[in-house]
Design goal:
- This protein is of the alpha/beta class.
- The chain has a single domain (about 10-160), classed as MoaB/Mog-like domain (Molybdenum Cofactor Biosythetic Enzyme, Chain A), CATH 3.40.980.10.
- It has seven helices and six strands, in the order βααβαβαβαββαα.
- Strands 2-1-3-6-5-4 form a six-stranded mixed beta sheet, sandwiched between helices.
- Strand 5 and strand 6 (about 130-135) form a beta hairpin.
- The longest helix has 14 residues, at about 55-65.
Length: about 180
């Protein structure tokens, strides 16, 4: 296991318009806010903003995992059926393993709020000692999806050799088998 002196979490917003400065990124900050609510420990956000270009997404995911040492990389945007929505394809291309249960759980939770959740293509996967999770682009959906899958995130990161993440049990109770 690696010695983790500073826990880093990558937060990637994938948006043509936000990356072009047409509007402010609100989804990346929504992820960071939610993670600060969930995690009861010190960690550093490593934010990135890229356009809906598969090569750019793959490049930033590799950089965050391989160079920045992020144990967790959470993306937002680019998971729908539109032609420029390529986040799941980019994520799958850089991962050694895909974890289908994350996407299944996020869609199941989202369907309780919107019928269009069946159009969502979020996935999650492992690259080295990093877990990558694709989230939808709307802040409310970001919170719902993170809350749905986060009980499994710390144990997953344990299993892949990442740092020990501590959650606030009043917000999310992490599950670790005894």
């Amino acid at each position: 296991m690696t010695d983790f002196t500073e826990i880093r979490i990558g937060i990637v917003t994938i948006s043509d318009r936000a990356s072009n400065g047409e509007y402010a990124d609100i989804s990346g900050p929504a992820i960071e806010t939610e993670l600060h609510r969930i995690l009861a420990m010190d960690w550093q956000a490593v934010p990135r903003l890229v356009s809906d270009e598969r090569y750019e997404i793959e490049t930033v995911l590799r950089e965050l995992c391989d160079e920045q040492g992020a144990c967790l990389v959470v993306t937002t945007g680019g998971t729908g059926p539109a032609l420029r929505d390529v986040t799941p394809e980019a994520t799958e291309a850089v991962c050694e393993k895909v974890l289908d249960g994350f996407g299944e759980q996020m869609r199941a939770v989202s369907l309780k709020f919107v019928p269009t959740a069946i159009l969502s293509r979020q996935i999650a996967g492992i690259r080295g000692c990093s877990l990558i999770i694709n989230l939808p682009g709307k802040p409310a959906a970001i919170a719902q999806c993170l809350q749905a899958v986060f009980p499994a995130v710390p144990y997953c990161i344990d299993l892949i050799g990442g740092p020990y993440l501590v959650t606030d049990p009043d917000v999310i109770k992490a599950f670790r088998p005894e």
